[in-house]
Amino acid sequence: MPIVIAAAGLMPGTGPICGGGYGCVWNVRAATLLPEESRMEIEMSPPDRARFDAHVARTDVRIGLTGIAAIDLLPFMALLGTVGIALRRLGGSGADTLERALPWLRRASQAAIVWMLAGPVHQSALETWLSPGMPSGFRIITTILLAPIAGGLLIAFAAYAAIWAVEAALKARRDLDRFV
Amino acid sequence: MPMIVQLDVMLAKRKVRSKQLAEAIGITESNLSLLKSGKVKGVRFSTLSAICRYLDCQPGDILSYETSDEDLRPDAGD
């Protein structure tokens, strides 16, 4: 995952382009990091595109992009890690596998919530950081679109609530087990 | 929660063995052992009734309480 974060910063906007009978090639286009409207604005003017590419090529900008990529990828990394540990605990031996897995599932749901909330922060930071290379110059951009994150956020909250309820039920059962 | 379980004393008085009592009231010997050592969170009324019935005694013969100010806290013992 650190490699992915570093790659996202060092080669911003890298992605495969396939088709046309030429197979797949990796194309580095930093403009793809921008929203459609801003991207079109840059793509249509060669001087603006050259200015933007020159801005993105700067070392300090790329280091900044690495940090911004971490905003999105670190919670995702935490989510993958915690789900992995939870599955490992669930697959383990012993009578208390669920009890040992639940705290990790709870952390996974928390990581999912953070990941969902990090989306708009990441996008806003990215656009603000790249804005000096855009025709309009530097400006602080806040991109908070609830629609793309609402579904994921609700599922993450539902998962957290369900895990909390199961944990509470298991605790109650443990307490009752100590009654003779 | 200084609740003292005096089941051992009652068993000795009635000359009843733990295994015999456990079988009679339908709980495991390990649970009865936990009860005798006071390492349980609570005793069901049904268990207490069965013990009292079998040993022909009152709950006060099995349980006694030692005064402690900590018991005035609602979450004491949790």
Topology of this protein?
The complex is a heterodimer of chains A (180) and B (78).
Chain A: H1 2-10, E1 14-18, E2 24-28, H2 36-43, H3 46-57, H4 59-90, H5 97-130, H6 146-177
Helix pairs in contact in A: 1-4, 4-5, 5-6
Chain B: E1 3-5, H1 7-14, H2 18-25, H3 29-37, H4 45-55, H5 59-62, E2 63-65
Antiparallel strand pairs in B: 1-2
Structure, described:
- The complex is a heterodimer of chains A (180) and B (78).
- With 180 residues, chain A is mainly alpha-helical.
- Chain A has one domain (2-177).
- Helix content of chain A is 71%, strand content 6%.
- Chain A has helices at 2-10, 36-43, 46-57, 59-90, 97-130, 146-177, and strands at 14-18, 24-28.
- Chain A has a two-stranded antiparallel sheet with strand order 1-2.
- The longest helix of chain A is centred in the middle third of the chain and has 34 residues, at 97-130.
- The relative contact order of chain A is 0.11.
- Chain B is mainly alpha-helical and 78 residues long.
- Chain B has a single domain (3-65), classed as 434 Repressor (Amino-terminal Domain), CATH 1.10.260.
- In chain B, 51% of the residues lie in helices and 8% in strands.
- Chain B is built from 5 helices and 2 strands.
- The model of chain B has no long low-confidence stretch (mean pLDDT 89).
- Chains A and B meet through loops of A and helix 3 of B.
Descriptive tags:
heterodimer; A: 180 residues; mainly alpha; two-stranded antiparallel sheet; 6 helices; 2 strands; 71% helix; elongated; B: 78 residues; 434 Repressor (Amino-terminal Domain); two-stranded antiparallel ribbon; 5 helices; 51% helix; DUF2975 domain-containing protein (chain A)
